[in-house]
Design goal:
It is a single chain. The chain is of the alpha/beta class and about 140 residues long. It has one domain: 2-Layer Sandwich (Transcription Regulator spoIIAA), CATH 3.30.750.24. It is built from four helices and five strands, in the order ββαβαβαβα. Strands 1-2-3-4-5 form a five-stranded mixed β-sheet, sandwiched between helices. Helix 1 runs parallel beside helix 2 and helix 2 crosses helix 3. It is globular and about 40 Å long. The N and C termini lie far apart (about 45 Å).
Length: about 140
Amino acid sequence: MSAYSFSIKTDVGRNVMYIEQHGQPSAGDVLDLKEVFVVEVGKLRPGFSIVNDQRDMNLEPYDEDAMVAAKELIEITNRHGASRVIRILSADFLSTVTLGSMLAEGRSQYASIRVGTPEEAEEALEELAGNPIPDPE
């Protein structure tokens, strides 16, 4: 059994997806997340936001298969028109390097915002609701 778990909740009215992750995912774990993610992202309109709580994740470098699956998630997020992903993360250096590397390799096309708490994520959503990020086209 993997030491990884996740949950995804979608607020269609607010056009926001909430993801909570714990542990370090294997490639199989990321594929399981992707399966649920694809269904949930289909409920949202372009310009949606994602709040991804990764405070309890081990963000040591993923193995190669998990990295490939994570990049697929970034591509799906791009295709569905996310405007921003707000990540709730600790401030450690390793998670910053790992996340930055994955976003660059996956060619994310959305704003990536980092906060420390769920409350800060909600504040960011409220602030950004009045100032939408323009469409890159």
